[in-house]
Specification:
32% of the residues lie in helices and 36% in strands. By secondary structure, it is an alpha+beta fold. The protein has one domain (18-176): Alpha-D-Glucose-1,6-Bisphosphate, Chain A, domain 4 (2-Layer Sandwich), CATH 3.30.530.20. The longest helix has 21 residues, at 156-176.
Length: 177
């Protein structure tokens, strides 16, 4: 009887680890908005990381976060860092790793707390007409095994997507004023 209880307990304890073997570890989120401004003007605003503090959902959660900067904003190699005691903001930095004028900015996000991760992100602008621009904000993430089992209990893509969309809506409001 004791032997059966031991093996049953072992099986129950092992179940999440077995399930995690079959759960994805990577995710991609992309959200878009149409802004009633020309592409060059929109790109010139979004290429500056300091401007994200005006519209990023995470920056707006803690307006008192400590910010640091290295390099020339809006150029390759510029790094924008943040530090907050708020658990949804934490500590990290992002670096512009590639710019294609009036088209795309690629970033490397480095999270230090409350968890460590490095993730690629981007913002892309595309002229729809002379006075309309589509902005896409994208993010890729990874969750190592066995933590990836969390994908079964929470929709991380939806959560991040909602935050990106809220940021894009704020960006639209700022630029259309």
């Amino acid at each position: 009887m004791l032997k059966k209880a031991f093996f049953l307990t072992l099986a129950v304890a092992a179940l999440p680890f077995i399930v995690a073997l079959f759960v994805k570890t990577d995710y991609t989120v992309e959200e878009t908005v149409i802004i009633e401004k020309n592409n060059a003007m929109v790109f010139d605003y979004v290429k500056h990381l300091k401007n994200q503090h005006n519209y990023s959902r995470w920056a707006l959660i803690d307006p008192d976060m400590k910010k640091t900067y290295r390099g020339v904003d809006g150029t390759k190699g510029f790094v924008s860092g943040w530090k907050s005691d708020h658990p949804d903001v934490g500590r990290g930095e992002q670096e512009i790793i590639k710019l294609i004028t009036n088209a795309r900015i690629d970033y490397e996000l480095r999270f230090f707390a409350p968890f460590e991760a490095t993730s690629p992100a981007f913002m892309a602008t595309q002229a729809i007409s002379e006075s309309q621009t589509m902005v896409t904000w994208g993010f890729k993430g990874h969750m190592d095994y066995p933590m990836n089992v969390m994908f079964l209990f929470m929709d991380i893509e939806q959560t991040i997507g909602d935050d990106l969309q809220a940021g894009l809506e704020s960006l639209k409001e700022i630029l259309e004023k």
